[in-house]
Amino acid sequence: GRTAVVLVAAGSGTRLGRAMPKAAVPVAGVPMLERAIASVAAALPEAQIVAVLPAGHASLWQLCASIAAAPHDDGAPRPHLVAVAGGATRNDSVRAGLAAIGDAVHVLVHDAARCLTPPEVFAAVADALAAGARAVVPALPVVDTIKAVRAAPDASIAAEAVASTPPRSGLRAVQTPQGFRRDVLVAAQRQVAAWPAARAETVTDDALLMEMLGEDVYLVPGDERALKITTELDLMLAEALIAAGEE
Ligand code: CTP
Ligand code: MG
Fold it and tell me: What Gene Ontology molecular function terms does this protein carry (predicted)?
């Protein structure tokens, strides 16, 4: 296939604070990873999916194996799904996923924690890649005013201080799937591999690497439903969205 999806699901889910990796946490009764795979496969039925999993969590590996083997009686193609073990940071997990993809021209890197991402977002990213963009990211306007901060000017006040306020109209919050020409992403990752760990840990999204290489990163419309389930509040919101969709 020409497109592969690296679905990163190897995080521990510390902020959600359950006794299991976040990808295994049920969202309205269905494990987050299962919802994420279903949404990717529905949006991009021809794409290869590489699920990047926590090495030690057998039930997630079993879930992937059973999805890959499941018969499809409705004639829909079954997901081209493989699973690999992730690493200590998100970027390590992305690298592990990239190493496992076949002969794809384009790669979408997607957070399993954004398990309710609607097909329009995948389509918008894929369309921009097809039109020739080398890096594409879904984005939304920010709703809060964002401050850059600095250390407290008065050390007797236990608080940080405002450094500056970038105009909100010029800011966007980015989501996933983030889409790339595979050769460009692989080249960027090769550079990061040589970085000290402290710097590598600052790679919080994949577009950042493209900016570093001087690549133009294009923005397409994101979607509120592509929220990243990070905290208990996000999980409540996701379950409310599912309930609303079933009405
Ligand atoms: N991720 C990953 N490997 C890691 C860390 C994160 O594959 N070592 C994935 C997560 O599984 C998630 C996505 O990257 O789908 C975004 O990360 P985040 O929301 O931070 O998830 P966690 O790292 O699991 O959560 P926390 O930071 O609260 O521990
Ligand atoms: Mg994390």
Answer: 2-C-methyl-D-erythritol 4-phosphate cytidylyltransferase activity
